[in-house]
Amino acid sequence: MSSAEKTSLSDLQCLTPDQRWLKLWKVHWKRGDKTGDWTFASRKNPPMVATGKIEPDAVIVVPTWIERPDAPQSGEKKLVVTREFRIPLAGDYYGFPAGLIEKGQTPVQAAERELGEETGLKIVSVQKVSPPIFSSAGLTDESSVLVYCTVTGTPSKAGNEHSEDIDTLILGRRELEDLYHVRGRFEGARLSLKLWPVLDAWLAQ
Amino acid sequence: MSSAEKTSLSDLQCLTPDQRWLKLWKVHWKRGDKTGDWTFASRKNPPMVATGKIEPDAVIVVPTWIERPDAPQSGEKKLVVTREFRIPLAGDYYGFPAGLIEKGQTPVQAAERELGEETGLKIVSVQKVSPPIFSSAGLTDESSVLVYCTVTGTPSKAGNEHSEDIDTLILGRRELEDLYHVRGRFEGARLSLKLWPVLDAWLAQ
Lengths: 205, 205
Hints:
Two copies of one chain form a homodimer. Chain A is α+β, with helices and mostly antiparallel strands and 205 residues long. In chain A, a hairpin with an 8-residue loop joins strand 1 (7-14) and strand 2. The termini of chain A are far apart. Chain A is built from four helices and twelve strands; from the N terminus they run βββαββββαββββαβα. In chain A, strands 4, 5, 6, 7, 8, 9, 10, 11 and 12 form a nine-stranded mixed beta sheet that branches.
């Protein structure tokens, strides 16, 4: 028997009902003779604890850049990485184009929109799409879908939103190695948990 | 000029000072003529916004299981995956052994301790260690270090903590394929954002 069948949850309480984008919640848990309270953050209202439903909050685009969509094998394979000042990290963060999935959008539609808004690039083809996967299970019910695709075009900030100021970097192998090791021009960089394992696989090829 | 040099933060405010493990914070930001408030969750006190320091909160162990440490190349290569009911997800979560780094511990020391407590297994050798990488930059300043290692031993729950009830699975290629596609015995599973890209790279080998 898995522990899912043994744990019961009760007394879900929102600790910050006035916060619009992100709320802190507390819930009571009981498993056999063990019991306690758990505090977590959620963008969902009601959170997953109340619904049990797996619904992705966000999409993360893993974009391989190609110069010529008519000849995708020509030239060096490059990876698109975004650089953005992220407020919770108080510094420049390197990751992939990403954003919240809007109501009624599929993950691939959200990926096309976010890629366009954040980088000005366009999807040529989609290689694979992950299931919803969870950022940090003890801390939040946030989940994301990874969309691996090839993209093309010239970077532009024209579609950035009010709070955004996003630089688009199109990086080849040598630069990706420096980013992977957080060295050279990338010293002090804050790296995404999604980016690093992709770099690791990319550089092992 | 990167946006880090253009954004200023002020009026950091803790919205839930009475919460011990996880707090919600609000900070005011200003970049040129744009301005706003940002809400985020943090396990750190003070959070990264106040310190600017990159200090990993957690360690995540990526364990390849080998039967015989004296002959690591013999037998099928398997991956260790943990299954645990996670309260924020209201269900069974599949990921890697992980936990908070205690004061004074290196990430590798924390990996050895957490692996032992959660699975009863032992590290044979460490292959690579990531820099601190960030779970979800818009939502939290939480960062983790990935420790890729080979491990050996027989699973045990003897070291599980009060709130833990962790099953240790040692999975070969066919089972990892089912987990990757969330099918068969893994239907309805909540998958870790750290686990899926590792499965993706593993299955591409």
